[in-house]
Design brief:
Strands 3-2-1-4-5 form a 5-stranded antiparallel beta sheet, with helices on one face. The protein has helices at 9-19, 21-27, 31-45, 49-61, 67-80, 86-100, 104-119, 130-148, 152-172, 177-191, 194-206, 211-223, 227-240, 245-258, 263-271, 281-293, 297-307, 314-318, 366-370; strands at residues 334-341, 345-349, 357-360, 377-385, 388-392. The protein contains 19 helices and 5 strands. Strand 4 and strand 5 (388-392) form a beta hairpin. Among the domains are: 255-311, no CATH class; 312-398, OB fold (Dihydrolipoamide Acetyltransferase, E2P) (Beta Barrel), CATH 2.40.50.140. 36% of the residues are buried. The longest helix has 21 residues, at 152-172. Helix 8 runs antiparallel to helix 9. By secondary structure, the protein is α+β, with helices and mostly antiparallel strands.
Length: 398
């Protein structure tokens, strides 16, 4: 480490990677050794915001916890890195840790501080999912408290807030692993608690118009295998709030997964799950899928041309979604003809389906892609990206 000259960008990058607490914790189990590394690092970098932040995380996450020391280090990080937007996020995470170690009004005070700090990095100014993730952690922790305290009114309100925060986060970052992990944790917390289940049922019986509450309640029913009850909950919301986009999207997905024969119903609900010009891009893609499946090809093409222009990260934009299923719920195997092959992709056409299906080599087993020849038949699965119908040629494809 002492051989590094952090005045050079390459050495600075290597130095920062080395002092990252996560990296050090994976290499060293001796906490004293890690502390000594940070002492040595300070002699190299001096007053550096990233150094102070990583040392603070050490005192937050390791067994040598010292929250006061961590807070002082983060204040120093802010002083020397006023434009480092990640420091407030680390401060928010510190408040969340403090909340977990306290109770009563003190616990609520830490929750509120974490919420306030995290909210700086949501909305239009957001450049990552971290702020949303912290807000969700706070919401889920509050729900855990409410369930533990057997407070039915608080369970209902905490569930509504957690579901609302989740939907706002996933609309902004639909494929973010942290947020999807939060979604799983929330669903498991609610489905594992009969107390929460009973509270949500009673609250929904009194008020059918709360879409966030209905979304959580329907998730519990689905997890319990009570599909018709989940459908009934969502339908009741639409009886009182016919334009609710969240519920239309949930109901459209439920029909696709559990009532595939109602393809027109799914199309109807996805069409009403967004409005022209809004940012519900994932819902629009699901609507495009239904248009294609229902043989409304011209409308499908029109929508796909619009979706191709959506500004979105490449992973989300090229992710294949909505694999077409057969009546047994298994991936439908299509037989198609190879009509074009290039180095990175091939185009396939299948009888009964309009247009070509795009096969990127990353969505194919390498040996299968290399064996493709123009004019030959191939079995594959069909899904959809923001560029349209997409083929998948994996080992699971027959």
């Amino acid at each position: 480490m002492s051989a590094l000259d952090i005045g050079y960008s390459a050495d600075r990058i290597a130095f920062r990677e080395f002092i990252k607490y996560r990296s050090l914790s994976e290499i060293f189990s001796d906490l004293e050794r890690i502390e000594n590394i940070y002492k040595k690092a300070f002699s190299i970098c001096g007053d550096d915001d990233y150094f102070y932040q990583q040392k603070a995380i050490f005192y937050m996450r390791s067994a040598r916890q010292n929250y006061n020391e961590a807070e002082e280090l983060l204040f120093l990080a802010q002083k020397h890195g006023p434009y480092n937007s990640t420091i407030k996020h680390t401060l928010a995470e510190l408040e969340l840790i403090k909340a977990s170690k306290s109770s009563g009004l003190e616990r609520e005070r830490h929750y509120n501080k974490a919420d306030t700090l995290a909210s700086f990095y949501t909305g239009a100014q957001s450049t990552s999912s971290h702020g949303y993730d912290t807000i969700l952690k706070v919401a889920i922790s509050r729900l855990e408290d409410a369930i533990s305290n057997e407070d039915e009114e608080l369970i209902t309100e905490s569930t509504r807030k957690a579901e609302k925060s989740l939907r706002e986060a996933l609309q902004k970052y639909p494929d973010d692993e942290m947020l999807l992990g939060d979604e799983v944790k929330l669903a498991k917390l609610l489905s594992d608690s009969e107390r929460a289940f009973d509270a949500l049922k009673r609250s929904f019986a009194r008020n059918h118009s709360n879409s966030y509450l209905a979304a959580s309640l329907s998730n519990i029913y689905i997890k319990k295998g009570m599909i018709n009850e989940a459908k009934e909950v969502l339908s009741k919301v639409l009886d009182s709030s016919p334009a609710d986009k969240l519920v239309h999207a949930k109901l459209g997905m439920l029909l696709i997964e559990h009532f595939p024969e109602d393809s027109l119903g799914a199309e109807h609900h996805f069409r009403r799950s967004f409005t022209q010009g809004d940012t519900n891009h994932i819902n629009q893609l699901w609507y495009a899928r239904q248009l294609y499946i229902n043989n409304e090809y011209d409308d499908y093409l029109l929508l796909i041309r619009s979706l191709k222009t959506v500004a979105m990260g490449p992973d989300s934009k090229h992710k294949v979604r909505g694999i077409v299923k057969d009546h047994n719920g298994k991936n439908l195997n299509l037989v198609g003809k190879v009509v074009k092959i290039e180095h990175t992709y091939a185009l396939l056409e299948s009888s009964g389906y309009k247009g070509a299906h795009f096969l990127h080599r990353s969505n194919s087993v390498t040996s299968k892609f290399k064996s493709l020849k123009v004019g030959t038949d191939v079995c594959y699965n069909l899904g959809f990206t923001f560029s349209g119908a997409a083929a998948i040629l994996k080992n699971g494809s027959v």
